[in-house]
Amino acid sequence: MHAFNVVIDKLNRMIILIVVPLFTIMSAVTLIQVLFRYVFKLPLSWTEELARFLFVWVVFLGSAVSVKELAHVGVEYFLDRLSFAKKKVITVIAYSACIFMALILAKVGWDVTRRTFAQLAPSMQIPMAYVYFAYPLGFLLSAVNFAYHLLCAINQKATN
After folding, report:
1. CA dihedral 10, 110, 149, 94 (to 10 degrees)
2. Are the C-beta atoms of 79 and 137 separated by less than 8 Å?
3. pLDDT for 41-64, tens place per residue?
4. How far apart, in whole angstroms, are the C-alpha atoms of residue 69 and residue 67?
């Protein structure tokens, strides 16, 4: 379990090292768009599209990291009122369902990505598959992080 934890932590650090520059570039491109549109009265066609594409990548990759950090919204009110054994069973079922759904969404996202290689972005003229690939990758990484939490839940021992 310790080795898996180390691998997951390194994977999520790598994702963060990708997300932070993407977010920075997205912010800079948005600032450039605002300056050129409202100050110089010369709107750039590619900046809005690039910012939107970067936002997609930041959301899906950031969401996967949020799974590991347990940063997504959860309702724990009822779970906290259960015994350890019942809580463990429900947690295992919930993480299993999350893995299942994330893998289904990754598969669907991959199918969509494969079909969009010929479709070009209107302004930047890059294949839309480059943008859509964030969807299956983000859900696949989320499934890996859910698997980590599933293993932690299974190995969890009662504390008194």
Report:
1. 170
2. no
3. 999 989 999 999 999 999 999 999
4. 5
Q: How many angstroms separate the CA atoms of 157 and 87, rounded?
A: 12
pTM exceeds cut of 0.85: yes
Radius of gyration of the chain (CA): 20
DSSP 46-75: HHHHHHHHHHHHHHHHHHHHHHHTT-S---
Q: How many angstroms separate the CA atoms of 132 and 108, rounded? A: 11
The 10s digit of each residue's pLDDT in 12-22 is 999 999 999 99
Q: Number of helices (H) and strands (E), helices first, in the chain?
A: 5, 0
Contacts of residue 150, Cβ cutoff 8 Å, sequence gap at least 6:
92, 95, 96, 99
Question: Is residue 44 classed as helix, strand or coil in its secondary structure?
Answer: coil
Encoding tokens for residue 56? 């997609």
Contact 31, 6 (CB under 8 A): no
| Helix ranges (DSSP H) in 116-155 | 129-132, 134-155
The C-alpha atoms of residue 62 and residue 20 are separated, in whole angstroms, by: 9
| Cα–Cα distance list, 89 to 38, 74, 85, 137 (Å) | 56, 17, 6, 29
The values of phi and psi at residue 41, to 5°, are 55, 35
